[in-house]
Design goal:
Shape: elongated
Protein name: GntR family transcriptional regulator
Strand order of the largest sheet: 1-2
Order of helices and strands: HHHEEHHHHHHH
Number of helices: 10
Number of domains: 2
CATH class of the largest domain: Mainly Alpha
Keywords: DNA-binding, Transcription, Transcription regulation
InterPro entries: GntR_C, TF_FadR/GntR_C, Tscrpt_reg_HTH_GntR, WH-like_DNA-bd_sf, WH_DNA-bd_sf
Largest sheet: 2 strands, antiparallel
CATH topology of the largest domain: Four Helix Bundle (Hemerythrin (Met), subunit A)
Organism: Amycolatopsis albidoflavus
Number of strands: 2
Structural class: mainly alpha
Length: about 220
């Protein structure tokens, strides 16, 4: 089912407001709520989020640079005509860098850090709330990324994570079970210090997510004429 609109909480600071608005627009695009070619009503969105139009405009400029939004002179901002491969690339690039981080992490993770990842995986398998699952999933991957010991990779991933839509667990009802299986396989590879295996599994994890994202948009008629 399509995600329903969610009013985001008020935040202080122009940078936070811009980031909040950009993330909400991404969520609506990648959940199929906003379809290709749809005009983005800046005034209505500002009212829904309880903010001024300035951070909305700034967010749309950011999204234009990402290729998610297209500005048309004297007409406004529209959802870009994204292709299926655009969606796949969106997730797979993130997966490639995350996979490299996992390969490095396999050599660096301490027994205590591995146990912390196991504990997170346990909590995710028992957590019914999709929003909390999203948070735990972020923490699971964040710990692996930081264990890479590469400031450059962590820096790149910090940029990439801003361009990946949140709400994946809510938009894809079958994803929690699939993700749980993937996480256990990744953990086994990390525990056995198999960097190449961990890298392959993480890349596939994100690639599989990209196919689910494409399938969801297909069901929502994202590419319908």
């Amino acid at each position: 089912m399509p995600e329903t609109a969610k009013a985001a909480p008020r935040r202080t600071g122009p940078a936070n407001l811009k980031a909040m608005a950009a993330q909400e627009i991404r969520r609506r695009v990648f959940s199929g709520q906003l379809r290709a070619g749809a005009k983005i009503d800046q005034e209505a969105l500002a009212d829904e989020l309880g903010i001024s139009k300035l951070p909305i405009r700034e967010a749309l400029i950011t999204l234009d640079h990402e290729g998610v939004v297209e500005h048309i002179a004297r007409r406004g901002a529209f959802v870009a005509q994204l292709t299926r491969d655009d969606i796949r690339d969106h997730y797979r690039v993130f997966g490639l860098v995350s996979g490299l981080a996992a390969e490095r992490a396999a050599k660096n993770l301490s027994p205590a850090s591995l146990q912390a990842l196991e504990d997170l995986a346990d909590r995710m398998e028992q957590e019914p709330d999709r929003a909390e699952l999203e948070r735990l999933n972020f923490e699971f991957h964040r710990r692996i990324n930081h264990a890479s010991g590469s400031r450059r990779l962590v820096s790149i991933l910090a940029i990439l994570v801003k361009t990946v839509s949140h709400g994946f667990y809510e938009a894809h009802p079958d994803w929690p079970d699939k993700a749980a299986d993937d996480h256990r396989r990744i953990l086994r590879a990390l525990s056995s210090r198999s960097g190449a295996r961990a890298r392959t599994l993480v890349e596939k994890h994100f690639a599989d997510g990209s196919e689910r994202a494409v399938a969801l948009l297909e069901r929502q008629g994202f590419w319908a004429n």
